[in-house]
Amino acid sequence: MRTVPVELGARSYQITIGRDLLGRIGAMTSAVAEGASAYIITDTNVGPLYADAVAGSLSAGGYAASVVTFPAGEPNKTLATISDLFDRIFAAPRPPERGSVVVALGGGVAGDMAGFVAATLLRGVAFVQVPTSLLADVDSSVGGKTGVDHATGKNLIGAFHQPRGVFIDTDALATLPPVELASGMAECVKHGIIRDLSLVEWIEQHAGELMGGEPDLLGELIARNVAIKAAVVAADEREAGERAHLNFGHTIGHAIEAVAGFEPGADEQDYLRHGHCVALGMVAANRIAVGRDLLAETDTTRIESLLKAVNLPTRREGLADIDVLGIMRRDKKVRGGAIRFVLPAGALGRVDIHADVTDKEILDAIEYLSGS
Ligand SMILES: NC(=O)c1ccc[n+]([C@@H]2O[C@H](COP(=O)([O-])OP(=O)(O)OC[C@H]3O[C@@H](n4cnc5c(N)ncnc54)[C@H](O)[C@@H]3O)[C@@H](O)[C@H]2O)c1
Ligand SMILES: [Zn+2]
User: Fold this and answer.
1) Residues of the chain with pLDDT under 50
2) Among all ligands shown, which has an atom nearest to the Cα of 112?
3) Distance between start and end Cα atoms, the chain
4) Catalytic annotation on 243?
């Protein structure tokens, strides 16, 4: 078992990573959040696999535990789903009280929505994260950003609400579909590019075993990544400065996700997950950086090879025909401020923020993504 601290003063907590943890969630939760009732928020894929084990453990830990399930998938990360979750929480055999605990069980969608429920239920109750996707393990379960999407754009409604603890059972990754494992790897490559060249090297060395699901290596991968995320969040919890570095690849990535990522179409393989969009966004950002002499051409081809090795896309036909720039502008308007790009700062492993990237640079990068 490994632990990584998240240092946030009075809101500090620990991330615990290990195998066979689900049966210990009750004991681990009661160590950080005393309470009479617990609401496990999970989706229709993860619930049938793991909710019984978590509910049983919470019951053994002294909680009246209820499981509240929502339909899996990013299109359901909405206020309508939140409203339905509240209806069911208030109708639970043991109604919520200020001391209740919300338990997020699932990927980033379950975590973001459970966190938002916890932030707003009775003006805020304790919550713990039990992430089950690689993306949630290495990224979304840590840092306290919670919320839902709006038709206007992603993650436009939400709150900061830190968990009391993050309990990562790496055995849960055994049931994660390979396409979702790849999606999570995008955030790992991102962490390497923004903070740690040795992580990029390590993923290069172990790509095959990691994608094969080797549990010890996945545990090490998660520990290295949450340590980076925890350090960034500890330095800048509310994203006044360096936390924005975590948005590397996300400026163009989110715009791609808004048009190409949301609809799980007839062809499952063609549906771009969050990480797939981030991979394309990182390729585009690197392209812009090369044009500004901020990154060597060899470094961008190196990252593209690595993305391919972990089954992520580096090109997307037809993107140039979509108004990606228009979506970025709309997003900028809604959030306020300039379109801010995170770009490598001379080499892999460090980045800077740029507010002066031109439309032409963005359009050229999207053109590059659309090529072969
Ligand atoms: N809050 C943050 O700081 C933050 C950071 C990054 C991403 N996010 C958000 O996270 C979301 C993406 O997260 P995600 O990729 O985990 O999506 P997700 O929650 O939709 O999970 C992906 C799919 O895998 C399934 N799944 C998860 N764990 C499983 C398991 N162990 N076995 C079988 N199936 C499993 C889910 O049911 C879903 O179908 C996005 O909404 C993104 O905006 C939030
Ligand atoms: Zn992301």
Assistant:
1) 262, 264, 266
2) 1
3) 44
4) yes
Q: How many CB atoms lie within 10 A of CB 193?
A: 28
d(C-alpha 198, C-alpha 47), whole Å: 36
Report strand pairing: 153-160 vs 145-150: antiparallel
Q: Which two tokens stand for residue 16?
A: 């615990």
Tokens of 106: 């699932």
Q: What pLDDT does 237 receive?
A: 95
293 alpha carbon – ligand 1 mean position (Å): 35
For 22-70, write each residue's pLDDT tens digit: 999 999 999 999 899 999 999 999 999 999 999 999 999 999 999 999 9
| Residues 15/6, Cβ–Cβ less than 8 Å | yes
pLDDT of residue 261: 56
* 123 labelled catalytic: yes
The active-site residue out of 150, 239, 302, 332 is 239
Task: Give CA–CA dist 133/135, Å, rounded.
Answer: 5
* Closest ligand 1 atom number to CA of residue 110: 19
Q: What pLDDT does residue 263 have? A: 53
Q: Are 107 and 144 in contact (CB under 8 A)?
A: no
Longest CA span, the chain = 62
